[in-house]
Specification:
alpha+beta, four-stranded antiparallel β-sheet, 6 strands, 24% helix, globular
Length: 156
């Protein structure tokens, strides 16, 4: 834990996409399969065409392997999208790929529930299971069934 730079220290908020703020710590139970879920209801990014803000709740669920993402660094990372211009689908895939690169999880899924703009909301879902393992099969199953029991959305 001595390598964590953000936890317990003054916060330096970055206003541009900054994957370098992400930090990990060792998973004390890598032999177990278990879920870690983050809900970030105040995510913002910018439309790459109009520059208008987009607001979303981002759901990140993963099964850790050897490394786990430290939550304050994840908050700072998600905050760094504040002035980042990208489409909703791109933001979700970028988040997922950055977290895969960071921790090499057994399984991960990222789901964005964006507030409507122009009368339509967009809810991109992306997932990944470690190739050649049962988690790859889980990823395909979750992809096929991810929206069968949609969560209740209270903020739109």
């Amino acid at each position: 834990m001595e390598n964590l730079k953000n936890l317990g220290n003054d916060t330096n908020y970055l206003f541009n996409y900054s994957p370098q703020v992400l930090e990990t710590f060792d998973n004390k139970h890598p032999e177990n399969d278990y879920w870690v879920k983050f809900n970030a209801p105040e995510f913002t990014s910018l439309c790459p065409i109009t520059g208008q803000p987009d607001f979303a709740t981002i759901y990140i669920s993963y099964m850790p392997d050897q490394k786990m993402v430290e939550s304050k660094s994840l908050k700072l990372y998600l905050f760094s999208f504040r002035n980042h211009g990208d489409f909703h689908e791109d933001c979700i895939n970028i988040i997922m790929k950055d977290l895969i690169k960071l921790m090499d999880p057994k399984y991960i899924e990222v789901w964005g529930k964006f507030l409507p703009r122009g009368g339509i909301s967009i809810d991109p879902f992306a997932n990944y299971g470690k190739p050649g393992t049962k988690y790859e099969e889980l990823a395909w199953y979750r992809m096929q069934n991810h929206d069968l029991n949609p969560e209740k959305i209270d903020n739109r």
